[in-house]
Every structure is written in structure tokens, then in C-alpha cells.
Amino acid sequence: MKKTPDFDAAAEFMAARARVLDRRVFQRLFQGGAPQPVRTAISAYRNEDGGFGHALEPDLRTAASQPAAVEMALRIMDAADAWDEHLVRGAVDWLASIAPSDGGATFVLPTLSQGPHAPWWVPGEGNPVSLIQTGQIAGVLYARDFAHPWRDGATEAMWRGIDQLTEPMAYEMFGVLAFLQHVPDRSRASDALKRVGRLLFDRGLVALDPDATGETHSPLDFAPLPDSIARPLFDDATIEAHLDHLAGAQREDGGWMFNWPAWSPAAESDWRGFLTVDALRVLRANGRA
Fold first, then answer.
1. Residue 50 half-sphere exposure toward CB, CA atoms < 13 A
2. Are 73 and 87 in contact (CB under 8 A)?
3. Contacts for 81 with CB less than 8 Å, ≥ 6 apart
4. pLDDT per residue as tens digits for the range 190-222
5. Of 217, 224, 209, 215, residue with least CA distance to 178
6. Which positions ≥6 away from 236 have C-beta within 8 Å?
7. In whole angstroms, what is the distance from residue 217 CA to residue 85 CA?
8. Cβ-Cβ contacts under 8 Å for 106 (sequence gap 6 or more)
9. CA-angle at 137, arms to 267 and 49, nearest 5°
10. Is the torsion defined by CA of 198, 202, 205, 210 positive or negative?
11. To the nearest 10°, the Cα dihedral for 38, 148, 130, 177?
12. Which secondary-structure segment (H or E) carries 174?
């Protein structure tokens, strides 16, 4: 029998443990909630410069605007169907104002030092382009047909990065696949996937065993939805096994837990609410709820 999540337990967890933003997204996706409360909750993380900060990305707890927080804001508004053109335009204008010389977005800005942050957030020397942030943001903008000069520069930066990609990190592949999912040049995207998709396996970036331990990445991390561009890289049996594992990973308190180091109690709590919503979204999209 296919495993399914306990939505009642998840709703209790969200009410007891999650931040307001993720509770609003939960209500929007699973309880018939309106989009405006999601937009209002997102706007609480917005800065006067148009960017987002204030621990919207739970491992970056500085108030200062960061590309990763913009990426999370846009992805949440997209997934919750709570898109806000005003918030998006301000955020992308800000990205354009701090963009690397080659276009796109950098991984993290030095302003992260203005607040607590996880140790793996380290600014790159010379403000280099990040495939992680650039690809995920550009992908959402294409999905929402949001044109902007920043997106044009990001597109060129992504194609250059993809053409040169030989030793990616798993997180870079998230950006690459998000970009390839939505970029309009479908022929070029298909050709690129044939080459870079193999890197998931050749470089050991994906854990095909659902019970693999440690900070691993499931096929569902790279291909969460049935129409994900990377879904054909995995057979049905593998996807079903990982869906069973995801549903079975719901804890007694009703929420889900991550498999990377927990460095801050506040960050842990924030991530658990966000990931609980995401797990339920993926399970429902794959017919498990």
C-alpha cells in the first residue's frame, strides 16, 4: 500500500511550531486560504531597498537583503499562487543593482556578517555568479512570464555556466534544473539536460536508496513534481520508493525534519515549518494526498 501523510497531524504541527509565513502558505495550499495573507506575510521580510532578509532564508538571519532570501520569496509566492508584481519588481530591481559583472546573482553578500548565519554561507571572492540563486530566480521569473533586464543577463550567465559545468555541487543542480525547466529555448534546454542530467549520477549527487543516511539528496529533490524536467531520469519504481520514504518521514509531532546540520534552534524551527509544507505539496502533486 502506498504511504500517505497525516494532514491532521501536520495541521497541528503547523499551528504549534511554524512561523506565520508558513502557516499562511499551508492555509493557502491545503485549507482554501486566500493569496493576500501570503503576500502580507512575505512583505514583512522586505527591506526598503526592495530585497528580502530578516531570516526569510532561515540559515541567513541578518536583516540585510540577500539573493537567497529573494529566491525564497519568489518561490513561495509562485508555489502558493500568491504572486505579487510589485514585490517581485522591487526585488528584481534590487538584484540588478547588486548583480555581478557577468549578470545573475551571487551566492551571498558580505552583509551576512551583520547577523547570525550558518557556517556554510561564505561570500565568494570577487562577487561571482551563483548558479544556485541565479537559476532558481530566473526559472521562477520565466514561469511567471516576468520580463526584466536582470532576467536577460541571468539567462546569459546561466547558459555560460551550464556549458562549462563538469563538477557541480548538488545545490548548483537545483538552480540549473529550475532554469532548464522554464527557459523558453526548449531545444537548448533539452540538449543541456542530456549532458548535465548524467552528472547527477556520475558525480554521486543523488541518493537512489531511500534509506541512505547523512546529508543526501533524493530524486524528489531534483524532480519533485510529475512534470519536472528531470523526472524522466528516474524510473517509476525509484520515484514511488522515495515517495513512500517521504510520507513515512513524517514525525510523531506531525512535521518533517531536514538532514543537514541544525546550527540554530530558531533556524531549525523555521525550516521544519517550511519543509513540512513542501513535503505535503510534493506528496499531493504525486497523488499521495
1. 15
2. yes
3. 28, 35
4. 999 999 999 999 999 999 999 999 999 999 999
5. 224
6. none
7. 33
8. 67, 98, 100, 123, 124, 127, 128, 129, 130, 133
9. 75
10. positive
11. 70
12. helix 170-182
Mean pLDDT for the stretch of residues 243-249: 98
What gap in Å lies between CA 259 and CA 285, rounded to an integer?
Answer: 22
**DSSP state, residue 123:** P
Kindly state the cell numbers that stand for 245. Answer: 520514504
Grid cell for residue 209: 536508496
d(CA 286, CA 279): 11
Tell me what pLDDT residue 1 has: 85
CA–CA distance, 96 with 138 (Å, rounded to integer): 12
For residue range 68-124, what is the model confidence (pLDDT) as tens digits? Answer: 999 999 999 999 999 999 999 999 999 999 999 999 999 999 999 999 999 999 999
Tallying the residues shown for the chain, one arrives at 289
Query: Considering just the CA atoms, what is the radius of gyration of the chain in Å?
Result: 18
| Sole residue written with cell 530566480 | 137
> Rounded to whole angstroms, how far apart are CA atoms 17 and 88?
28
Check: CB of residue 39 under 8 Å from CB of residue 77: yes
Task: Please state, as a whole number, how many other Cβ atoms lie within 10 Å of the Cβ of residue 75.
Answer: 17
